[in-house]
């Protein structure tokens, strides 16, 4: 009997993950907030370094008195970068501990439950849901939920700050940034849902594959397979399942390449528009060169953290 996965809202998923996480790694629950603060701090430190140099050149300031501030900014960038790397390692292992807890609880539930109850449809449905959240490898498992949420929030806050900063150049810059980000987000979400649908279509295929594979290695049937000369038939069934799986993977990969290409084109158009407004603002005297450098590096850092997240 086939089982169907329940659909939960984002906040239901968040509450469920929090309940599973708080006893194993309470610090992991604070990762989204820590990621936001680290991303903003690292972006600010990275952007302020070239901006400060341009400010000194514009005002004919000597580098000697200001060298200490440049050293401090350099140390800050290195320290924040190291902190972010350590945080990524920590949250990776903390999330794996949560996943291990779910594996153990799932196994213990099957061991202590009466055999007749394990045959019920409700139990199979719960197992299907548990497998979806614990074992899936498409970015939806419990050990990737909080890390991906943290990266997403860090990127979102950075883009929001960039949008606010760009208002000083031109309101059209902010409109362009928001519009391009929304279009890219819609494409990414649509791609994720389509990939999930395509992977769901393979459940029956993989069920058949595991059946034929188990039959071919089962000592009770392997002799019959050879005795009645059905090796080609069995091998054909296995190859047919694998061929269907490869076809779906190729479709997913090809669409992902197309979506990535479209997003890159959108980013190119976005950079062309906002940097055009920024250069025009410099020549018109609405902003100085230091602010242009600040905005230019801020935009590049925001794009980097967005792709990274």
TrEMBL record:
InterPro entries: ABC1_TM_dom, ABC1_TM_sf
Domain ABC transmembrane type-1 residues, every copy: 136-297
TM segment ranges: 36-57, 63-82, 175-194
Topology with respect to the bilayer: Multi-pass membrane protein
Subcellular compartments: Cell membrane
Cellular component annotations (GO), alphabetically ordered: plasma membrane
Primary site of residence: membrane
SUPFAM superfamilies: ABC transporter transmembrane region
Top-level taxon: Bacteria
Protein name in UniProt: ABC transmembrane type-1 domain-containing protein
GO MF term list: ABC-type transporter activity; ATP binding
Keywords: Membrane, Transmembrane, Transmembrane helix
